[in-house]
């Protein structure tokens, strides 16, 4: 990932703010706390088609997503990672963030995901910033976007 205006390559050290903290980009790890571990694994593996790279049954599951990773953690285990007061155990009532990923054809991906049971909150549409996008939720209400450049024609 290249930061706008930054001539360095991904993976090089960057200095954040005035603290002089050194951060090295080596890919992102998105960690999702899930209420129903088995239901979440079923969704990510059988609906989205992700391959589980590593898992501890009932605890966590790791997926490679391009050069990044995604880790599902059961909410009761998440209490141990943070603290019980810092983990939201209530069902999501709306998007707090969006996990976005490119696809070759938004309409084809939309039809395939919908046929496998994904719940879409926005159907495919061309957006003014030049992407065709559609949005769906996982079993915990986390929002996903699939997108591709708007076809020129």
Summarize the structure.
This is VOC family protein. This protein is α+β, with helices and mostly antiparallel strands. It has 3 helices and 10 strands; from the N terminus they run βββαβββαβαβββ.
Give a written overview of the molecule.
Helix content is 18%, strand content 39%. It is an alpha+beta fold and 153 residues long. It folds into two domains: 25-84, Roll (2,3-Dihydroxybiphenyl 1,2-Dioxygenase, domain 1), CATH 3.10.180; 95-153, 2,3-Dihydroxybiphenyl 1,2-Dioxygenase, domain 1, CATH 3.10.180.10. A four-stranded mixed beta sheet has the order 3-6-5-4. A four-stranded mixed beta sheet has the order 7-10-9-8, covered by helices on one side. A two-stranded antiparallel sheet has the order 1-2. Strand 9 and strand 10 (143-149) form a beta hairpin. The longest helix has 11 residues, at 37-47. It starts with 12 loop residues before the first strand and ends with a strand. Mean pLDDT is 84; it is low at 1-16.
Shape: globular
Compute the number of helices. Answer: 3
Strand order of the largest sheet: 3-6-5-4
CATH superfamily heading of the largest domain: 2,3-Dihydroxybiphenyl 1,2-Dioxygenase, domain 1
Averaging pLDDT over every residue, what do you get?
84
Low-pLDDT windows of residues: 1-16
Q: How is the main sheet built?
A: 4 strands, mixed
The fraction of residues assigned to DSSP E strands is: 35-45%
- Specify Rg, calculated over alpha carbons: 18 Å
Distance between the termini: 29 Å
By oligomeric state, this entry counts as single chain
State the CATH architecture of the largest domain.
Roll
Q: Helicity, in percent?
A: 10-25%
Number of domains in the coordinates? 2
Structural class: alpha+beta
Order of helices and strands: EEEHEEEHEHEEE
Q: Could you tell me the number of beta strands?
A: 10
CATH-derived topology of the largest domain: 2,3-Dihydroxybiphenyl 1,2-Dioxygenase, domain 1
What's the CATH first level of the largest domain? Alpha Beta
Domain VOC: 24-149
InterPro entries: Glyas_Bleomycin-R_OHBP_Dase, Glyas_Fos-R_dOase_dom, VOC_core
Organism: Trebonia kvetii
Protein name: VOC family protein
């Amino acid at each position: 990932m290249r930061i706008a205006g930054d001539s360095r390559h991904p993976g090089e050290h960057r200095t954040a703010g005035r603290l002089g903290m050194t951060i090295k980009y080596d890919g992102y790890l998105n960690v999702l706390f899930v209420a129903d571990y088995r239901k979440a694994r079923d969704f990510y593996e059988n609906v989205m088609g992700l391959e589980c790279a590593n898992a501890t049954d009932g605890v966590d599951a790791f997926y490679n997503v391009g050069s990044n990773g995604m880790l599902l953690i059961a909410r009761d285990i998440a209490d141990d990672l943070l603290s019980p007061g810092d983990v939201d155990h209530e069902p999501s009532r709306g998007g707090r963030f969006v996990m976005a990923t490119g696809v070759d054809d938004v309409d084809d991906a939309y039809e395939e995901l919908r046929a496998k049971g994904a719940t879409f909150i926005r159907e495919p549409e061309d957006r003014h910033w030049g992407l065709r996008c559609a949005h769906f939720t996982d079993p915990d209400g986390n929002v996903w976007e699939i997108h591709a450049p708007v076809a020129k024609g």
